[in-house]
Amino acid sequence: MSAVHRLPSWLAIALFAATAFAFPAASATRPPNLVLIIADDAGYGDFGFQGSRLIPTPHLDQLRAEGMRFEQAYVTAAVCGPSRAGILTGRYQQRFGFEENNVPGYMSPSSRLLGDEMGLPLDQPTIGDHLKALGYRTGYIGKWHQGNADRYHPTRRGFDHFVGFRGGARDYFTPDDTYFEKRPEDRIEYGFGHYEEPGTYLTDFFADEAIRFVRENRANPFLLILAFNAVHNPLQALPEDLARFPHLEGKRKLVAAMTVALDRACGRFLDTLDALGLAENTLVVFTNDNGGPTDANAANNYPLAGTKANHLEGGIRVPFLMRWPGVIPADSTYAPPVSTLDILPTFYRAADGDIARLGDIDGVDLMPYLLGRRPGRPHQTLYWKKENRGAIRDGDWKLLRFPDRPAELYDLSTDIAEQHDLAARYPDKVRELYQKLFAWELTLERPLWMLKREYEGAAMRRMDAYRQPQPDPVP
After folding, report:
1. Second label for 117, Cα 20 to 30 Å away, from 12, 161, 241, 425?
2. In a domain, 2, yes or no
3. Does the CA dihedral 261-267-273-279 come out positive or negative?
């Protein structure tokens, strides 16, 4: 992978400030290509650029060296489906009823929608719709998880090209025929309605298809979402990757091997951008859809407490990288909180779109903040809600609200591991944040589908089990 030329930080800042009014034109001939790479259920601390000394991720580490790492990036939900709905729309998904994970079999029968009918409402335009209107060729590769019914299909939601599966998780190797009798939404689909299993490890296959899309569409500006299902369960790895971790056992060995495969797949894709001469005019974002499920796949969220499915930082704070050569300074860091809601407006503005045309969205264009043209934080306040559980971050204060215990209050500027509950010391701050959270909730739609009580209780128990950060011992 070719390295981006690096300048002294003072000179880089001066050059970027001098060219601010020319933004976003990174190319004199056409707008930039836009790429979003999404990992699935990865641990916050399971990448080299996030501090892991156990799992080597050289390709993503190189992406970080060539771009910007975000210290406080958040998703809008601690589980896959709702989080991706927020990414695709730039809106809090609770505003249109996509509050719970759309996984058939886990929902209350009193829900308005069930089974394959659970999906991204048709009145919500997607990032694909918006970029297609600007003349972009749009592609989606990998895990969809926005509804199994035909009307929710990616090719009917703004994407010209789709290769992947409609469901939320599936085997990495070709399963037997009885698997698809129970889970037809997990078949690999090419376009609309053509199914064929690839016969290769799925992480590698999705990288191959992303490379194919880029090769076939490089004559036009393109938007590509490469949505890996790695490292989501089931835990399945290639023998050669498992062999790299003889000192590990069980789930930890498997997730380490799967992370290495994910990093290698990202590297092959990024190398293709270089080889085709596209990297210099491509804005790339890498992130994860929610916190790692420490119990289910042994992902490590250190130094955060919590895990997938709860609102502790380990469930909602995610790795986040952005690279745009000539625009974003290399080897840089951005500290204030950002949201995956910001991806859509940032991409849209980079494509020379008028943000006002996006309508009532919750994300913001990050570029003025990243380049120092706008002071302050992109977001003063961020919200989370899952039925009667909720959370709010206002400045550096974070409130967690529960159905079965008193609210908790943390100062994230000094306690990112959320070990020191300050609610009893600052009751006025608890009251203030509780009221702000409730006022936001009054603007939301009723959830279109809801979890059965026993599954909501399981999520609470998971949070209690992972209250302490779990450092990864390095042999």
Report:
1. 161
2. no
3. positive
**For the chain, what is the mean pLDDT?**
93
**Which residues sit opposite 189 in a β-bridge?**
164, 195
Residues 72 and 337 sit within 8 Å (Cβ to Cβ)? yes
Bridge partners for 223 per DSSP: 34, 138
| pLDDT number for residue 474 | 63
- 89: tokens are 């729309």
Same domain flag for 374 and 441 = no
Give me the domain span that covers residue 438: 388-446
pLDDT exceeds 70 at position 411: yes
Helix locations, 235-316, DSSP H = 239-242, 250-275, 294-297, 313-316
pTM > 0.85: yes or no: yes
Judge if the upstream peptide bond of residue 24 is cis by omega within 30 degrees of 0.
Answer: yes
Same domain membership, residue 345 and residue 394: no
Query: In angstroms, what CA-CA distances link 258 with 41, 47, 174, 253, 269?
Result: 11, 12, 16, 9, 17
> Could you tell me which residues come within 8 angstroms of residue 11 by beta carbon, excluding any fewer than 6 positions away?
none
Per-residue pLDDT at 221? 98
Cα–chain center distance at 466: 22
Mean pLDDT of 230-258: 98
**Which domain CATH number covers 440?**
3.30.1120.10
Distance CA 428, CA 441 (A): 20
Contact (Cβ atoms closer than 8 angstroms) between residue 400 and residue 311: yes
Q: Give the DSSP H/E element, type plus range, for residue 181.
A: helix 177-182
In a domain, 475, yes or no: no
The pLDDT score that the predictor gives to residue 475 is 54
Judged by DSSP in three states, 73 sits in strand
Separation of alpha carbons 326 and 26, rounded Å: 7
All residues at 6 or more sequence positions from 256 whose CB lies less than 8 Å from its CB, including other chains: 46, 54, 55, 244, 245, 248
The dihedral over CA atoms of 151, 155, 157, 163, expressed in degrees to the nearest 10, equals 110
Distance CA 451, CA 109 (A): 9
At residue 454, the pLDDT reads 75
Rounded Cα gap, residues 144 and 162, in angstroms = 9
The pLDDT of residue 22: 41
Region for 106 from its dihedrals, namely left if φ exceeds 0, alpha if ψ lies in -120 to 50, beta otherwise? alpha
